[in-house]
Amino acid sequence: MMELEVDYKVVELEYGFDNYMKNLRNKSGQIVIKQRNLVVVDVEKNGVTKIEGKVVNDNLIINELKKFIIPNPQNEEMPITIEKEFKYSGKVDVNKNIIVLGIFDKELNYEKYREIRNKIYIAFNQVRNEFALAKLNQSTQEIIDSDKESDNEKWTEINRIFPIRYTETVKE
Questions:
Q1: Does the pLDDT of residue 14 top 50, yes or no?
Q2: At a CB cut-off of 8 Å and minimum separation 6, what does 133 contact?
Q3: Distance, CA of 19 to CA of 29 (rounded, Å)
Q4: Where are the beta strands (DSSP E) in 66-148?
Q5: Which residue, 67, 45, 49, 69, is CA-closest to 59?
Q6: DSSP 8-state class, residue 16
Q7: Cα separation of 46 and 109, whole Å?
Q8: pTM here?
Q9: How far is the C-alpha of 163 from the C-alpha of 172, rounded, in Å?
């Protein structure tokens, strides 16, 4: 049987007082998500975690996710990347519309759910911090704690390079 690549369409919503008018879009404004840019984290009721169908030990979840979050334009199985120019970071490869999808069994206990979900956010934050140290010679904590306008701009830039796009669902 031939496997087809599926595209997912996502409409970014902006919430606020005037959200109704801001959220109206025509079909050409939709964001197309390629299947390889959708990273699936599937957690079974017994806590077994699979990332992209591969069983991953709990202590390796963060490192496995980081492989997908860090742009890798040479590997066609990893999320699609594009090159962008930034004020402080220069030319950088960024993932194009990557989304991490957490699928949790409804019988999974809350502590395990919270642990896995936190690891997803930790993976994003570690990638951001490693990038900041390598490119900007500052940790993300130093940038966040700073009152300098340039550091505020750096933080915004890091968020644009590594946006956290995470969604989750519960399976029966």
A1: no
A2: 139
A3: 16
A4: 81-86, 90-95, 99-105
A5: 49
A6: S
A7: 9
A8: 0.80
A9: 29
